[in-house]
């Protein structure tokens, strides 16, 4: 499988972003998630494919662009949960391999199970959208430390653990198991570099 370069991924973002402002918002978040994942990767060791993690981090939210109405420019906030699947579809249309597409569809929260889709009535085809490989889990975990809110914020592990509790104790337990496995990132250099607040 060919892994796209940073330049190719950035070009793909530029191609699909509805405006420059949306591109900057989404791509900056992806860069930050990549920085966090690489920081954690340095501690994990060679069993995780670093090139795949980098590409997956930079691609994971590309489906957000498809939430924007091309005619009005408005974002569909009610179907935000679909951005992962939309990214998976976008990458399929662009000819990307399943291993790359899965970073989009399997990074939401602590993963969406078939039961989550049914019980919460989510606007998704009933299926499991769970991070399975170490690379997918690392990207999903790194994503939890930065949020594309307006303005964007960094999120501490403690804050995320509290926030995810509303989705059930098993989500908290999974987050804690990843926290144990991958460790906590040092957000300080990223906070200083990007100037986003911490919650
Ligand atoms: Fe993300």
Question: What are the defining features of this structure?
Answer:
single chain, 199 residues, mainly alpha, Hypothetical protein af1432, three-stranded mixed beta sheet, 10 helices, 3 strands, 55% helix, globular, binds fe (ii) ion
Q: How is the main sheet built?
A: 3 strands, mixed
Mean pLDDT comes to: 96
Q: In angstroms, what is the radius of gyration?
A: 16 Å
Q: Which distinct ligands sit in these coordinates? A: fe (ii) ion
Measured by DSSP, the beta-strand proportion falls in under 5%
Could you tell me the CATH topology label. Answer: Hypothetical protein af1432
- What would you call the shape? globular
> What is the CATH architecture descriptor?
Orthogonal Bundle
Overall number of domains: 1
Low-pLDDT sequence parts? none
Structural class: mainly alpha
| Ends apart, CA distance between termini | 38 Å
CATH classification class = Mainly Alpha
